[in-house]
Amino acid sequence: MANEDYLEAIHRIMLQHPEPGSVRSVDVAELLGVSKASVNKALTTLKDRGLVEQSRYGRVTLTREGQEYAQLLWDCHRMLRHFLIEDLGVDPETADDEACRMEHALSRDTMARWRDYLAHEHGEPDAQ
Question: pTM, whole model, 2 decimals?
């Protein structure tokens, strides 16, 4: 679960700053509110799983598999957040927190099916 948060954070940073194509671990630490040591520990696990690569200068990039999985996580987060706010009337801050927790409990298949269902029923969720 926590490693998925790191993967999603790397993806989100890359979306905000796509030009360099890599992310500094300090940026991930800032976004998640964790220590750089925590980021480095997670990066080791993500590297071992073949989801990220890290240069000798410490910059991190997602592998193809990492990019696909991170995109699925981010899409799921946005979808859940949108559903909670728009369909259930949950306040945005609570919806964001709960979407983050919920996305880790769903299988990849369930995430994809729910995303497709909501896209069909309501149109694509917003990018917030």
Answer: 0.81
**What's the CATH number for 69-122?**
1.10.60
For helices 92-103 and 64-82, give the axis angle rounded to 10 degrees.
140
Measure CA of the first residue to CA of the last residue in the chain; give whole Å: 21
pLDDT single digits (tens) 24-77: 999 999 999 999 999 999 999 999 999 999 888 778 999 999 999 999 888 888
User: 2-62 has which CATH code?
Assistant: 1.10.10.10
Per DSSP, the residues of 59-82 read -EEE-HHHHHHHHHHHHHHHHHHH
- Indicate the SS3 state at residue 119: helix
Which positions ≥6 away from 102 have C-beta within 8 Å? 80
Domain boundaries along the sequence of the chain? 2-62, 69-122
